[in-house]
Amino acid sequence: MGLFDKLKNRTQRGKGRAKEAAGRESRDPYLEAEGRKDRMAGGAKQVGEKAKDAVREVRRSGRR
Fold first, then answer.
1. Which of the chain's ends, N or C, has fewer CB atoms near its CB within 10 Å?
2. Full domain range(s) for residue 19
């Protein structure tokens, strides 16, 4: 996984958590839902990057 992608995904998850908390504090269900969406999207991207890494590792180990 590229360091930039990993950092970008973590940032998106962090922004999502902040939006979700702000939505809860301000009792704004739309902001809370948007934060939840951002958090989940960042997590899903992270899973995709880990899957790519696993495939690369399998290919690399098979060439020996």
1. C
2. 3-62
